[in-house]
Amino acid sequence: MIEPWVCAILGATILWARWSAAPQKRRLRSLIPFSDLLTDLHIDWRISYVIEFVLFVGLGSFFAVKIMGFSGCREAFSGGLGWTGLLAQVKPADKV
Predict the structure, then answer these.
(1) Which of 1, 19, 24, 71, CA to CA, is 20 to 30 A from 40?
(2) From CA 3, how far away is CA 73, in angstroms rounded?
């Protein structure tokens, strides 16, 4: 049996990978104020990308498992997707 927190992390990671695959052209922007701080501090984009990913997945998984109390893998997976979706904003695609 897979632990719920693993499923929540998988759900959050899949959402991040889907909308944030290429850091230079990424469409997913975290609503965590810390990401704006990283931009203001002019930290290298690779380091800020990793830090933002860890915060994004960590907070989404925490909300899904600890706050909401999802105990099953399916619930935690969808909770990981849902809570991380609430912590993000998808920028519209550039028109070609």
Answers:
(1) 19
(2) 7
Higher pLDDT, 73 or 83: 73
94, part of any domain? no
Mean pLDDT, the chain, as a whole number? 76
Q: How far apart are CA 52 and CA 28, in angstroms?
A: 11
Q: 75 is in which domain, residue-wise? A: 4-17+28-88
79 exposure class (CB count in 10 Å sphere: 0-12, 13-18, 19+): buried
Tokens encoding 28: 């997913």
Distance from C-alpha of 89 to C-alpha of 7, rounded to nearest angstrom: 22
